[in-house]
């Protein structure tokens, strides 16, 4: 029986792939639309029997992140896995299928006065996609990331085995915390089917304190604000131009929010303003300011540095932009948590992007910083080392071999994917 016939006989909805299903220029042959974990497992067993490369996808909002897949025979779409399976409000716990969108989950939980405090920065993103890309928004400072809020996960492995970790464990993989491994794995270890999260009450009140200063030298003491007894839930920065003004915004929530906001404002300086609404840029990735018709044509980079090194990292961005020919770089992100996102304008020359990435990666290395190129246009992507030095690369390969020994799950998308074109690279 051919692979196509076997998929058709699996009992799962299967369709022929079309041009809109391409991932970074790689065209799959089929798209599977399972409606349950069992159906997902059935599809994965067929894929294993016929040596099909599988790429999981949710809403497709971040499917272009990371390296292009080396091959993709089957796109496994979780859009039909869109049910909230269990919400135990008294225990502040929810269990959902991977295809549930962040907006749908927020609407449902909000009726009970509860929230999953992730602030997903990409509109329409699913729970599975959020976990697979390890994305988190401004309030990571207080609540942590998806990995911190995840208390149970159900996955389907490359051979069709259903495995669970945390929560109500039925079948585990000995010695592995599946939640931590699958968060940020970009679908390279298996497919996320369900997730169980710890929730928080929706705060009774919120206030944003925002101040704009002329440059990095005039920034308020970020560490003092973040570590103060005022307990901000988030502390974000927005810098549209490397030589222009910088805006800092803090969020306080809950008890005595108004009084705490005034105290934060005093720490932030005389330009600080207090509002019941966030700034327009709050919780948005900077590449969203450069909308394009074709996802994956934009430049989006992520810079992580150790606590206390964010201001030095911002100065490094300025120097790298100058070295690349006064490149325009928009910076936004969690200045206290030291996770910054950078966007370059559409049309930025591939060579300039290469110089910028190389210079910035070199500059932040002494602080233990790491720069990842999530998206780049094809010409630039072929020149760039997306990941840079990865100290845990050997361990990551061993984990990949343990979970996907045949290399069929999203091959090449994560660290260890195709290298830059010979003679290039950062």
CATH top level label of the largest domain: Alpha Beta
- Inertia-based shape: globular
Structural class: alpha+beta
The CATH topology assignment of the largest domain is Uridine Diphospho-n-acetylenolpyruvylglucosamine Reductase, domain 3
**Largest beta sheet: what is the strand line-up?**
15-12-14-13-17-18-16-19
Note the main sheet: 8 strands, antiparallel
Number of helices: 13
Overall strand count: 19
How does CATH name the architecture of the largest domain?
A: 2-Layer Sandwich
Low-confidence stretches: 168-172, 417-426
Q: Please indicate the count of domains.
A: 4
Average pLDDT reading: 92
Proportion of strand residues: 15-25%
Give the CA-CA distance, first to last residue: 46 Å
How would you explain this protein's 3D organization?
The protein has about 425 residues and is α+β, with helices and mostly antiparallel strands. It folds into four domains: about 5-75, Uridine Diphospho-n-acetylenolpyruvylglucosamine Reductase, domain 2, CATH 3.30.43.10; about 85-200, Uridine Diphospho-n-acetylenolpyruvylglucosamine Reductase, domain 3; about 205-275, Alpha-Beta Plaits; about 285-405, Alpha-Beta Plaits. The protein is built from 13 helices and 19 strands. It has helices spanning about 5-10, 35-50, 100-110, 125-135, 140-145, 145-150, 180, 220-225, 255-270, 310-325, 350-365, 380, 395-405, and strands at about 15, 30-35, 55, 75, 85-90, 95, 115, 150-155, 160-165, 190-200, 200, 205-215, 235-240, 245-255, 275, 300-305, 330-335, 340-345, 370-375. The strands form four sheets. An eight-stranded antiparallel beta sheet has the order 15-12-14-13-17-18-16-19. Helix 10 packs antiparallel against helix 11 (about 350-365). The longest helix has 15 residues, at about 350-365. It is globular, with a radius of gyration of 22 Å. The protein starts with a helix and ends in a 23-residue tail after the last helix. The relative contact order is 0.12. The model is unreliable at about 170 and about 415-425 (pLDDT under 50).
